[in-house]
């Protein structure tokens, strides 16, 4: 029972931050049909910028709890910057070209952004543990967990609910669903598709940066974290279904719980178990568990 509880809680914590990153990735693909490899660099930039800013914040003697608002501000600021630089400045020129070319463009952007990270922050690891310790701990039987970790679960649930409400209960959200369903038809009905592309990319980039920003207090922020997270995010969207919000939720839960179970029960297969799950899903459901409905062409 104790092990099952530990697997459940650890899996939910793991799934929460992965969902933040995968949600941005699947939103961009669902709307723009772009497999954005550079999304991993958004996460890395969010983590590095957050770690740097948190260190400055606490060294300057500002109110401790203001550091949480600082992380969100950093994610939003970086999301807007990356949205304008990559979507408006680069990807907008690639629309209409072969999908493989666009993927290569995002991969090249990823490589360049990784070099920019090294240029700015170097190869040293950064630590920003202060916000993590601020919220204290909670006990489940003999298990102790940080309230910061549980807050990440709450953040993921809030974003999932907010995304659902935005898409299904607002006029702008329904227009976005129309763009997702059929871009050409949406444009024919007068929807400014290019504007929705830009806004979606900014939101997706912000979510990727937010995933890195909130994870900075939990991890050692070091070169390579963007590569690791983009692989996991791709696994999530492949398992759940490219472009599906529900797929991102279920995929994150599957990956998070699978990793937690492997760590507790069979640590030596922890790296393998995610790809095993992804392979099984692709064998029986090649387009993922929640296949996005396609418009019927006449």
UniProtKB/TrEMBL annotation:
It is a multi-pass membrane protein. One of its GO terms (cellular component) is plasma membrane. It holds the Pfam family BPD_transp_2. The keyword Transport applies. Keywords: Amino-acid transport, Cell membrane, Membrane, Transmembrane, Transmembrane helix, Transport. One of its GO terms (molecular function) is transmembrane transporter activity. It is found in: Cell membrane. InterPro entries: ABC_transp_permease, BCAA_transport_permease. GO terms for biological process: amino acid transport. The chain crosses the membrane at residues 15-35, 42-59, 65-88, 100-122, 142-167, 196-215, 272-290. Belongs to the binding-protein-dependent transport system permease family. LivHM subfamily. This is Branched-chain amino acid ABC transporter permease. It comes from Hwanghaeella grinnelliae. The lineage of its organism: Bacteria, Pseudomonadati, Pseudomonadota, Alphaproteobacteria, Rhodospirillales.
